[in-house]
Each structure stands twice: as structure tokens, then as C-alpha cells.
Amino acid sequence: MLYFILRRLLYLVPVWVGISLVAFLLTNLTPGDPARLALQRELGRQPTTEETAAAREQMGLNDPAPVRYVNWLGDALTGDLGTSYRTGTPVLESLAERFPNTLQIAGIGLLLAIVIAIPLGVLAAVYRQGAVDHFSRIFALLGASMPSYWIAYLLILLFSVRLGVLPVAGSQTWQHAVMPALTLGIGGSASLMRLTRSETLETLNQDYIRTARAKGLRSPAVLTRHALRNTMIPISTVLGMRFAGMLGGAVIVETIFSWPGIGKLMVDAIFDRDYPMIQGFVLFMGTAFLLINLVVDLGYGLIDPRIRLARS
Amino acid sequence: MIQTTSSAPLAGAILSGSDERLGDAWRPKRFTALRAVFQDRSAVLGLAILVLVTLVAVFARFIAPYDPAALDPTANLAPPSSEHWLGTDNLGRDLFSRLVYGSRWTLGAASLAAAGIVLLGVTIGMLAGYFGGIIDDLLMRLVDVLLAFPSIVLALAIVGMLGPSLTNVLIGMVAVWWVDYARVVRGLTLRVVQNDYVLSAHCCGCGHRRMVLHHVLPNVIPSVIVLATLELGSLMLAISGLSFLGLGAQPPTPEWGTMLNDGRLFFLNAPQLMMYPGIAITLVVLGCNLLGDGLRDALDPRY
Predict the structure, then answer these.
(1) Does residue B82 lie within any of the structural domains?
(2) CATH classification of A98-311 is 1.10.287.130, yes or no?
(3) Which of B142, B144, B149, B281 to substitute to test the interface with A, most A CBs within 10 Å?
(4) 8 Å CB contact of A29 and B158
(5) pLDDT (tens digit per residue) in B137-164
């Protein structure tokens, strides 16, 4: 197991360097001179050529790109992702402050997706071609086809306008988290359910299930003790990807519900042309996803010895 | 050239499939597969939806009763009536006409993005798979890095840096979404180049370009078509999502995501402004998903 963990950790290094390169190169996409833009914001007027040249020198923009990358990487590794153009606060601080809010709705969303998708998927597989299977198919198709922002507005229409039980936007109480999480959960449950169904179907066709039935075990025991455990292995990896997807999808949902997470921070940064914030967001999210994948892989290795013993 | 008329099942099946499955996969069964698609009622429904919406987009000028940008200040936020079938928006523009013209933007943007993605993904995947070695290593490391992000995050950052516009959204999408195709196509290419006919073509003095274009590409295309159909829906959702955030098509463009965004402020008084564009997007994405599922089932009957 130790060997497996070490190998997995080593693999992280090149990918993280790649992620940092992507984040670094992104700034080269900005139209115009970053020094000039920063000065313009600071002074509130067009800077002179001399002022811009001095700022370029001070910001190290005259160095060759590899030097700038190494300097930037050094700063990033020590927790300095620059300061936001908009608020003047350190980028990492803003991201770290908002991240728990995003984790909260994505976490509840994932939980909702599991609660909806896994029982429905298993039932659809067990009663294949039955009523539950047909319902699950329609649910999955609609869930995968409806835009999340539209689901969000349908939820607002139902829960806030018609029934008046949930607040529309904000983050003061726990009720505020319900609709953002539900929006993420509905979108995530559609594909999760189809996967649960197909995996369960595949497991139920295995020889060891026939053996279990042949030795006289009743259906519920076969299902829970033999089939479900094996079905859960592939599903657990997909859960990690779903969670990462929900963190990404939170951008739209947070904007609709004015939920103060990092997705909303990012959208605000885009409209304010807050380039250090956008760059910091990419590095931060890239790192977060890498860590989520690491946890999932390690967990996967823990459940399934075949994975940790494979030496490919 | 019998191989060029054969059809491969979904790439995933090939990548994970056993050798017997692969042996099956290269038989010329495209027509059987097509027949299977046409026997699948939901796939036919999906195809019908897509054909219908494409026709609407092409003949928008003859279908829409009004100019999508024509203002009618006397009929702001009018409810549906015989004059305005689906009502009007806050500036008095006819909602039905805007939806009809919007199909051009939504379908057109998704198709353009898909074309760019397929072109880039197939080229990179074939290069990596065909030449192998250091080219393969470098390209696949790039794929690993891009796969470390959920696609929408990186696309969003690229749009953020370039500035909001539909063109930049398309650039962002193509720059990020090609990785799936590159991986699948690389895997398929690796399988194809092991075939005897590739060796024999090589022995006959066939050059790299001819080999890739005449022997590898035709074997890769069927799987790419399935993948593209399956992904067209999610592409459409992503593009209209970015437009909804105000980062893609800008008002007064009648793109469906932009229309939903425009309708946000009025959705309490005039919920139709959000309802109909939402239904339109859902319907088209549903069409893509139904057809994609049908194609996959026909070519890969495991599920």
C-alpha cells in the first residue's frame, strides 16, 4: 500500500507542474499590457509611457518567460498568488475564504445525487424493463438534457414563488443552501443513476451471482452482500469525478443564487478583468481537483486490492 | 479496402474490449448498425428532433413572423396572443421569432465548436497514436494536464482572459474539449496500425500521409461520429451556459442562453421569457442524447 501511495504521489508532481504552466500561460492571452492595465486601475487615468516602462520593470515583465514562470511558481508555492485588482486583497486569501461555501453546496449536492441515483439505479437494474426502469430512463434523459440554470429557475418558481418555502438568493440561513445544492444534485444524479444501473446489470450477470443464487440465498441477500459491493467500486471513482464536476458547475449555480462561493468570485473577476484572480482560480481549482482525484484513487486502492497491486 | 467500410463500436468498448470483440468490431457491419439505429424508436425520435430544428434554423426567415430584433414599444412583456404566439419580451420583441432565429445561433455555435474540436482532437490523437515515441509522450502529458480540470473551468478562464464574446467562448471550448477525442482516437489508431493491411500498405511503399488519410482515418471516423453526437448536447449546454452568464453571445443576439439571461430580470412577471428558451435548449439536447444513445447501443450492444 505504501508503494502505491508513493507512486501515486510522485505522479502528482508532473501534472501539477503542467497545471501551473497552463495557469501561467493564461496571462499571455490577455489583450494589452498587464502593467499598463494594473497602473490604469491604480491611477485612474492613462499612464505615461515612462510610468508603464517603470512598472513593467518592477513587475518583472521584461524578464524572459522561463524566468518569469520560475519566479511566479516560487511565489505561488509560498502562497502568494498576487493581489486582486478589484479588491486589493491577496488572491489566495479570497479563494480560501470562499472555498468552504462552494464545498458546502457541492457536498450536499453530491449527497443528494447519491440518495436519488443509487437506489433508483439499482431498482432499475433489478426490475429491468419494468416501470421503475422506464421512469429512471426518462428522469436520466431529462436530467442530462436540462440546462442547470434552467433547473435552478424552475426550482425558484416552485419553491420560492408558488410555495414560498425557500428564499431566492443569499446565504444567511441553511435554507439558502437547499436550492443551489438541489440544482447540482439533480444534474449529477442523472448520469450517476445510468451508471449504477448498467454496473448493477453487469454484476448481476456474473458467475458468482449465479453461484450465490444456486446455493439458495434469497434475492435481497444476493443483491446487498454480493452484487452491490462489487457495483460500488466503479461507482466510487465516478463519485469523485461527479464531485469535481459539481465544483465546476457551481460557477453558474452560485451566480444565480448569489451564493458567495469561488464560482461567483470567478464570474465577478471575469467581468472586472481581474486577471490575477482568474489565474489564481485556475491554479487553485486545478490543485483542488488533483487532490480530489488523489483521495479517490487512494480510496479505490483501499477497496480493491487489484488496483494497488497493479504495477503498470 | 474492405476495412474502410467497416464500422467500429464506441471507442471505449474497443479500448477495454477483448481481442475477440475487436475481431468482431472490424467486420463490415455499418449497414446492420444503421438499421439497428432506425429500429430504435427513441433514436429515430432524437434524429427527428434534430432534423426539425435544423430545418427551422435554415428556413428561419420563412417561419418567423417578425424580425427578431424588431421592437414594438406598445407590446412590452405581452402575454401569448394570436399576434405574438409566445408573447413578447421586455423590449416588445416577438419571442417566437427570436426563438426561431436563435436556433441558428445555438445550433451553429455548437456545430462550429464540435467541428473545431473534432478536427483538433482527431489530428492530435492520430499523430500521437501513429508516430508514437516522444510525440506521443508529449501530447499525452498535455492531455493528462487538461484532463485534470473539469472542462468548464478552463474554458471559463480562457474566456475570462480573452474577454466575453461568442468567438472567445468557441476558442475556449475548442482549446479544452478536444482532449477526449484525442485520447479515444489515439487508442483506435494504435489498434489500426497493428493490422496486417497497414503493414502490407507500408511494404508497398505507402507514405505516412497516405497511410494516415487512407488507412487510419476511415477506421477512426465512425467512433468519432458517435462520440461527437453524444457530446453535441453537452457542448450546447456549455455554450448556452456561458452565454447565460453573459460571457458568450451578447444581447441583442437571440442565442437561447442569452435570451434566458435577458429574461432573468422579468421572470416573475413574464416567466415565458425563461420557460420557452429553456424548453428549446432541453428539446435539442434531448434530441442529441437520444440519437447518441441509439448510435452507441447499435454499435456497442453491451448496455
Answers:
(1) no
(2) no
(3) B149
(4) yes
(5) 999 889 988 988 888 889 999 998 898 9
